[in-house]
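Hi R.,

Here are the chain sequences for the assembly we discussed:
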Amino acid sequence: DARVTQTPRHKVTEMGQEVTMRCQPILGHNTVFWYRQTMMQGLELLAYFRNRAPLDDSGMPKDRFSAEMPDATLATLKIQPSEPRDSAVYFCASGPQGTNTDTQYFGPGTRLTVL
Amino acid sequence: AQSVTQLGSHVSVSEGALVLLRCNYSSSVPPYLFWYVQYPNQGLQLLLKYTSAATLVKGINGFEAEFKKSETSFHLTKPSAHMSDAAEYFCAVGNQAGTALIFGKGTTLSVSS
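And here is the predicted structure of the full complex:
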Protein backbone atom coordinates (compact mmCIF):
# COMPACT_ATOMS: atom_id res chain seq x y z
CA ASP A 1 0.00 0.00 0.00
CA ALA A 2 1.90 3.05 -1.29
CA ARG A 3 1.84 6.06 1.01
CA VAL A 4 3.27 9.53 1.32
CA THR A 5 5.71 9.68 4.21
CA GLN A 6 6.68 12.74 6.18
CA THR A 7 9.41 13.31 8.74
CA PRO A 8 9.50 14.31 11.47
CA ARG A 9 5.97 13.71 12.69
CA HIS A 10 6.42 16.17 15.52
CA LYS A 11 8.85 19.03 15.98
CA VAL A 12 9.18 21.43 18.88
CA THR A 13 11.67 24.23 18.45
CA GLU A 14 12.44 27.67 19.71
CA MET A 15 11.84 30.87 17.87
CA GLY A 16 14.65 31.72 15.50
CA GLN A 17 15.71 28.15 14.84
CA GLU A 18 15.76 26.54 11.41
CA VAL A 19 13.20 23.84 10.75
CA THR A 20 13.36 21.33 7.92
CA MET A 21 10.45 19.07 7.05
CA ARG A 22 10.78 16.23 4.58
CA CYS A 23 8.34 14.41 2.38
CA GLN A 24 8.67 11.28 0.29
CA PRO A 25 5.94 11.22 -2.35
CA ILE A 26 4.42 8.03 -3.64
CA LEU A 27 6.77 6.43 -6.15
CA GLY A 28 5.85 7.49 -9.66
CA HIS A 29 3.86 10.54 -8.62
CA ASN A 30 5.09 13.68 -10.35
CA THR A 31 3.21 16.38 -8.43
CA VAL A 32 3.95 17.36 -4.83
CA PHE A 33 1.99 19.82 -2.72
CA TRP A 34 2.72 21.44 0.63
CA TYR A 35 -0.26 22.54 2.72
CA ARG A 36 -0.44 24.11 6.16
CA GLN A 37 -3.31 23.52 8.55
CA THR A 38 -4.17 25.84 11.43
CA MET A 39 -7.29 26.28 13.50
CA MET A 40 -7.78 29.82 12.28
CA GLN A 41 -7.03 29.45 8.57
CA GLY A 42 -7.82 25.82 7.91
CA LEU A 43 -5.89 24.14 5.07
CA GLU A 44 -3.86 26.48 2.92
CA LEU A 45 -1.59 25.76 -0.01
CA LEU A 46 2.00 26.83 0.48
CA ALA A 47 3.61 25.54 -2.71
CA TYR A 48 3.51 22.81 -5.28
CA PHE A 49 5.83 21.17 -7.76
CA ARG A 50 5.36 19.21 -10.94
CA ASN A 51 8.23 17.12 -12.27
CA ARG A 52 10.35 18.77 -9.55
CA ALA A 53 9.77 22.27 -10.91
CA PRO A 54 7.97 24.78 -8.68
CA LEU A 55 4.65 25.81 -10.21
CA ASP A 56 3.13 27.92 -7.47
CA ASP A 57 4.62 29.15 -4.23
CA SER A 58 2.43 32.20 -3.82
CA GLY A 59 1.11 30.95 -0.49
CA MET A 60 4.53 30.84 1.08
CA PRO A 61 6.17 33.70 3.03
CA LYS A 62 9.22 34.12 0.82
CA ASP A 63 11.41 35.76 3.41
CA ARG A 64 11.51 32.74 5.69
CA PHE A 65 10.09 29.72 3.85
CA SER A 66 11.69 27.74 1.06
CA ALA A 67 10.58 24.57 -0.69
CA GLU A 68 12.67 22.33 -2.91
CA MET A 69 12.70 18.95 -4.58
CA PRO A 70 16.32 17.77 -4.68
CA ASP A 71 15.15 14.64 -6.49
CA ALA A 72 11.92 12.90 -7.45
CA THR A 73 11.76 11.01 -4.15
CA LEU A 74 12.27 13.91 -1.76
CA ALA A 75 10.59 17.24 -1.14
CA THR A 76 11.72 19.61 1.60
CA LEU A 77 10.15 22.59 3.30
CA LYS A 78 12.41 24.84 5.34
CA ILE A 79 11.61 27.67 7.69
CA GLN A 80 14.44 29.98 8.70
CA PRO A 81 14.08 31.67 11.10
CA SER A 82 11.00 30.08 12.63
CA GLU A 83 8.41 32.14 14.51
CA PRO A 84 5.59 31.15 16.90
CA ARG A 85 3.02 31.97 14.23
CA ASP A 86 4.47 29.15 12.11
CA SER A 87 3.08 26.62 14.59
CA ALA A 88 0.78 24.40 12.55
CA VAL A 89 0.48 20.99 10.95
CA TYR A 90 2.27 20.82 7.62
CA PHE A 91 0.98 18.29 5.11
CA CYS A 92 2.62 16.99 2.01
CA ALA A 93 0.49 15.46 -0.73
CA SER A 94 1.43 13.84 -4.00
CA GLY A 95 -0.49 13.33 -7.20
CA PRO A 96 -0.03 10.89 -10.08
CA GLN A 97 0.63 11.72 -13.71
CA GLY A 98 -1.57 10.40 -16.45
CA THR A 99 -5.10 9.57 -15.35
CA ASN A 100 -6.44 10.74 -12.03
CA THR A 101 -4.15 13.75 -12.01
CA ASP A 102 -6.82 15.46 -9.93
CA THR A 103 -6.43 13.16 -6.94
CA GLN A 104 -4.01 14.01 -4.16
CA TYR A 105 -2.73 11.60 -1.56
CA PHE A 106 -1.82 13.10 1.78
CA GLY A 107 0.92 12.23 4.21
CA PRO A 108 0.33 12.09 7.97
CA GLY A 109 1.68 15.60 8.52
CA THR A 110 4.38 17.24 10.60
CA ARG A 111 3.10 18.98 13.71
CA LEU A 112 5.34 21.98 14.32
CA THR A 113 5.39 23.92 17.56
CA VAL A 114 7.55 27.04 17.74
CA LEU A 115 8.03 28.35 21.26
CA ALA B 1 -11.32 31.64 -9.18
CA GLN B 2 -12.55 28.77 -7.06
CA SER B 3 -13.86 28.64 -3.51
CA VAL B 4 -15.64 26.27 -1.16
CA THR B 5 -18.04 26.94 1.70
CA GLN B 6 -18.91 24.28 4.22
CA LEU B 7 -22.06 25.09 6.12
CA GLY B 8 -21.78 24.21 9.77
CA SER B 9 -18.45 23.79 11.48
CA HIS B 10 -19.89 21.12 13.76
CA VAL B 11 -22.58 18.52 13.15
CA SER B 12 -23.82 16.09 15.79
CA VAL B 13 -25.88 13.01 15.06
CA SER B 14 -26.93 9.89 16.88
CA GLU B 15 -25.64 6.50 15.86
CA GLY B 16 -27.86 5.16 13.10
CA ALA B 17 -29.10 8.58 12.04
CA LEU B 18 -28.66 10.20 8.66
CA VAL B 19 -25.46 12.17 8.14
CA LEU B 20 -25.65 15.30 5.98
CA LEU B 21 -22.63 17.55 5.57
CA ARG B 22 -23.11 20.55 3.33
CA CYS B 23 -20.72 21.97 0.78
CA ASN B 24 -21.23 24.74 -1.76
CA TYR B 25 -18.65 25.70 -4.32
CA SER B 26 -17.81 28.48 -6.69
CA SER B 27 -15.82 27.85 -9.83
CA SER B 28 -15.30 29.62 -13.14
CA VAL B 29 -14.36 26.33 -14.82
CA PRO B 30 -16.00 22.90 -14.62
CA PRO B 31 -15.13 21.83 -11.11
CA TYR B 32 -13.66 18.67 -9.78
CA LEU B 33 -15.03 18.16 -6.28
CA PHE B 34 -13.71 16.10 -3.42
CA TRP B 35 -14.55 15.05 0.09
CA TYR B 36 -11.70 14.15 2.39
CA VAL B 37 -11.89 12.81 5.95
CA GLN B 38 -9.35 13.49 8.68
CA TYR B 39 -9.19 11.38 11.81
CA PRO B 40 -7.41 12.80 14.87
CA ASN B 41 -3.67 13.18 14.38
CA GLN B 42 -3.80 11.74 10.88
CA GLY B 43 -3.56 13.01 7.35
CA LEU B 44 -6.45 13.49 4.96
CA GLN B 45 -7.99 10.46 3.31
CA LEU B 46 -10.00 10.68 0.12
CA LEU B 47 -13.64 9.70 0.62
CA LEU B 48 -14.91 10.36 -2.89
CA LYS B 49 -14.56 12.63 -5.87
CA TYR B 50 -16.67 14.05 -8.69
CA THR B 51 -14.95 14.53 -12.03
CA SER B 52 -17.79 15.28 -14.46
CA ALA B 53 -19.05 11.73 -14.86
CA ALA B 54 -22.02 10.50 -12.81
CA THR B 55 -23.53 13.20 -10.62
CA LEU B 56 -24.13 10.77 -7.75
CA VAL B 57 -20.79 9.60 -6.46
CA LYS B 58 -20.28 6.73 -4.09
CA GLY B 59 -17.26 6.64 -1.85
CA ILE B 60 -15.74 4.59 0.88
CA ASN B 61 -17.36 3.73 4.21
CA GLY B 62 -20.89 4.07 2.84
CA PHE B 63 -20.67 7.78 2.03
CA GLU B 64 -22.00 9.33 -1.13
CA ALA B 65 -22.35 12.83 -2.56
CA GLU B 66 -24.46 14.37 -5.27
CA PHE B 67 -23.23 17.08 -7.60
CA LYS B 68 -25.96 19.64 -8.26
CA LYS B 69 -24.80 22.24 -10.74
CA SER B 70 -27.95 24.36 -10.42
CA GLU B 71 -27.38 24.66 -6.68
CA THR B 72 -23.56 24.69 -6.88
CA SER B 73 -23.61 22.07 -4.17
CA PHE B 74 -21.85 18.82 -3.38
CA HIS B 75 -23.35 17.63 -0.10
CA LEU B 76 -22.05 14.50 1.59
CA THR B 77 -24.49 11.95 3.01
CA LYS B 78 -24.53 8.61 4.75
CA PRO B 79 -27.81 6.84 5.57
CA SER B 80 -26.76 5.53 8.96
CA ALA B 81 -24.02 7.01 11.10
CA HIS B 82 -21.53 4.84 12.91
CA MET B 83 -19.40 5.79 15.87
CA SER B 84 -16.31 5.34 13.72
CA ASP B 85 -17.51 8.13 11.40
CA ALA B 86 -16.62 10.75 14.01
CA ALA B 87 -13.94 12.85 12.32
CA GLU B 88 -13.39 16.10 10.48
CA TYR B 89 -14.61 16.29 6.91
CA PHE B 90 -13.28 18.61 4.25
CA CYS B 91 -14.84 19.55 0.95
CA ALA B 92 -12.42 20.68 -1.74
CA VAL B 93 -12.56 21.96 -5.31
CA GLY B 94 -9.95 21.46 -7.99
CA ASN B 95 -9.71 21.18 -11.73
CA GLN B 96 -8.68 18.76 -14.40
CA ALA B 97 -5.18 20.11 -14.59
CA GLY B 98 -4.30 18.66 -11.22
CA THR B 99 -3.48 21.98 -9.65
CA ALA B 100 -3.77 22.67 -5.96
CA LEU B 101 -7.05 22.04 -4.19
CA ILE B 102 -9.03 24.75 -2.45
CA PHE B 103 -10.38 23.41 0.81
CA GLY B 104 -13.35 24.39 2.90
CA LYS B 105 -12.89 25.14 6.60
CA GLY B 106 -14.02 21.65 7.55
CA THR B 107 -16.96 20.17 9.45
CA THR B 108 -16.46 18.15 12.59
CA LEU B 109 -18.87 15.25 12.82
CA SER B 110 -19.72 13.90 16.27
CA VAL B 111 -21.65 10.66 16.66
CA SER B 112 -23.32 9.81 19.94
CA SER B 113 -24.61 6.44 21.07
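The mean pLDDT of chain A is 92. The first strand of chain A starts at residue 5 and ends at 7.

Let me know if anything looks off.

Best,
T.
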